User: Fold Mutator-like transposase domain-containing protein from Bracon brevicornis.
Amino acid sequence: MSSCEKTGHRYQVNTRFAFVMRTLGLGLAGCNKFCGLMDMASTFLSKSSHLDLMKSISCSVKTTAEKFLVSAANEETQQTRANSESDTLTVSGDGTWQKQGFSSSFGVTSLIGYWSGKVIDIFISSLHCQACKLWEKQLNTDEFKEWYQEHVENNECQANPTGPSGNMEVNAVIELLRRSEKNYGAKISNYIGDGDSETYGHLSKAKPYGKNFTINKKNVSATCKKEWVNVYVIL
Assistant:
């Protein structure tokens, strides 16, 4: 659709169209169907050009998300210092999955800052990689071994199995804490969880910051009680 300026060698409207359709959960087939229903030619979006668009959009979204997460983490650190005179953070963890139960292949876990209420980091759990799946009939070939080595070295593999599906959230939280110093220069000293949460028990055993650093648990009920007391005082 040559009706606007280009970004690189692509028209902006084509990129925005592909991005919006992907946000709605639709891929190339959905784009072609929409164009057909709107009586628009869809020849501008071939399979290869759509794949290139997805790679470009993915890179841009990832970069933007990382900037927002670092900004949120910095805000949480500042508010923590202002309210508690501490450099270590208090967070809660929350996970969402592709489907209910313990058989999901994909999930997203987030860390939420106590003072700011903002998401400061996320971890995507995946038991599968679509690119690897395309090679499943050639796993024993030299071509696959050469491709897979480059695939992993370039950090392109989407599979990061950390045990069964039921342990996705626990293992994701551990990984999020392990990389907190690298990502935003702060440690997590307090983890907010419900009374029967298994996450804290696994955190205590994993010791993401080493054996000399203790992570404390704060119960959700106690945290909510404190918040209601603050509201009552204000009223």
